[in-house]
Amino acid sequence: MIRIYDTTLRDGTQAEDISLTVEDKLRIAERLDALGVHYVEGGWPGSNPRDIQFFRAARRLRLAQARLCAFGSTCRADVAPEDDANIQALVEAETPTVTVFGKSWDLHVDEALRIPLEANLAIIEKSVAYLKGRGREVIYDAEHFFDGYKANAAYALETVAAAVRGGADVVVLCDTNGGSLPSEVSRVVAEVRKAVAEAVPLGIHCHNDGELAVANTLVAVQAGATHVQGTINGYGERCGNANLVSIIPNLVLKLGRSCVSADRLQKLRSVSRLVNELANLHHDKHQPFVGDSAFAHKGGVHVSAVRRNPLTYEHIDPALVGNRQRVLISDLSGRANVLTKARELGLEIEEGSDLAARILDRVKHLEAEGFQYEGAEASFEVLVKKTLGTHRRFFQLVGFRVIDEKRHESEEPFAEATIMLRVDGVTEHTAAIGNGPVNALDAALRKALEKFYPVIRDVRLVDFKVRVLTSGGGTESRVRVLIESTDGADVWGTVGVSENIIQASWQALVDSIEYKLMREVEAGRLADTPVPC
Q1: H-type helices in 134-172, by residue range?
Q2: d(CA 13, CA 236)
Q3: Mean of the pLDDT values across residues 477-495?
Q4: pLDDT reading at 105 higher than 60
Q5: Region 209-219: what's the mean pLDDT?
Q6: Which of 54, 63, 107, 169 has its CA 20 to 30 A from that of 116?
């Protein structure tokens, strides 16, 4: 049984650009418990007021499986554990498990602590023994162990022995600088395993400075480690920690090690995304196992093969980790892409018909002009329905005008958009002001449509990207606008292309609104009263 120890709430928050509130940390702890991790490290209660608040608030958590851990250092050289503020903060956190780290590298003992090597051993032993005497499960993190072992193996092993004499329940070997190679980690773990025999379970804690944290963790398990530390999405100081989102499925699905049950493994993607959301960071679409692109297929040959057997280009069933297969549409697509994507959208196209070829030809023609449907699947669905002749427009544009005005040098410019639409024979003429021409046009479009389709109020833009497509044209260059929209439940992308950024934005805005209304009609929440094309 491999025990999973999550340190997202402590080591993960040491990453640049990441800050979590107490409530964020409580929510993540509950989701980690639901995922099935065995330990959730909540923070360092002696280091900052927020972690103190977290441990107080965490007493109300009702975790089903995970044990909450407080983290800190061994006592100071000239202070007994019972008088050491850091050790007492660990006790006062009232967690069933505490994790303390100590020095394994003689360089750190000499240069950082500036105490005799024997004194460091005494610090480790008495700190662990004191916490064990207070009824805690004690995990000892051997900081800089691999660097220390390579520099002075005999002394590094003495530090482990000191923790064992103190009564440590687990000794974790740490690649703190993240520079070890898998061959080194495998060899050292095996040698330490042999040296301590069955005296104590070994754990592994890797950093990712050499882009090897996941690999180093897996080889450590193969060499005898039974306790694995890491963070969700690999967040952590410098280049990050070992990524549990990759480690857990590799342990379960590739190495056949028991750690997280199959039903809980399916929650992996949702936990990854929750942590991203609370950290206010974008989801990495290329992240293995859980990213949007992890099981996305673009080349026509690939799609044709996975339609027959997904194993041809997928190393696991994406549903095992809560993900799904995606087929991308681009100028690299084949007929299989179109057929598969159409079926995903609930559109039946016969295998031998020329509709797939017509759609594919249309896609390739538009992509040659600069359109891109990989991130604009809603626009692709509108395109397919237009090609099939099943598309119905919910409104017609009579005309719009956008004015961008700056009245004084010291003032910011503002934009005003005027728009005239026709909905089911009724003409609507309105205007809106925005902080830019696209924002004003978006506001005017919504204002004109909301009286006919109140559901439009739920839609908002969450991302707006502009890409210049032609070089050398200066301000006359063709641009592509990609818009991401949401109604609070779903997210969809649309695209527009033109030499005029307002026109490109208009195309993407219209597709976004029409896609939402199409979905409402299909769900029976909106009467289908379209204006004929």
Answers
A1: 145-151, 153-166
A2: 6
A3: 87
A4: yes
A5: 98
A6: 169
- HEC string of 19-35 equals CCCHHHHHHHHHHHHHH
Task: State residue 175's pLDDT score.
Answer: 98
**Among 260, 228, 262, 320, which Cα is nearest to 65's?**
260
Which three-class secondary structure string do you get for 353-404?
CCHHHHHHHHHHHHHHHCCCCCCCHHHHHHHHHHHHCCCCECCEEEEEEEEE
Which residue(s) pair with 266 in the sheet? none
Tell me the β-bridge partners of 494. 483
Instruction: For residue 263, count CB atoms less than 10 angstroms from its CB and return exposed for 0-12, middle for 13-18, buried for 19 or more.
Output: exposed
Rounded distance, CA 285 to CA 178, Å? 25
Pair 206, 236: CB distance under 8 Å: no
pTM: 0.72
**Residues with Cβ < 8 Å from 316, sequence gap 6 or more?**
249, 253, 289
List beta partners, residue 403: 416
Instruction: Give the closest residue to 150 by CA, choosing from 172, 123, 115, 179.
Output: 179
Burial class (CB in 10 A: 0-12, 13-18, 19+), 453: buried
List pLDDT tens digits, range 250-294. Answer: 999 999 999 999 999 999 999 998 998 888 887 898 999 999 888
Helix segments in 370-500, DSSP class H: 377-388, 437-449
CATH class of domain segment(s) 3-279: alpha beta
Q: Are the beta carbons of 357 and 498 closer than 8 angstroms?
A: no
Asked whether 493 and 376 are in contact (CB, 8 A), the reply is yes
Cα→Cα distances 521→153, 423, 431, 527, Å = 70, 16, 27, 6
DSSP class of 66: P
Position 408, amino acid: H
The structural domains of the chain, with segments of one domain joined by +, span 3-279, 296-369
Gap between the Cα atoms of 137 and 201, Å rounded: 13
Q: And the tokens for 271?
A: 């936990």
Report the distance separating Cα 87 and Cα 94, nearest Å. 12
The rounded distance, in Å, linking the Cα atoms of 153 and 162 is 14
Sign (positive or negative) of CA dihedral 173, 177, 178, 183:
negative
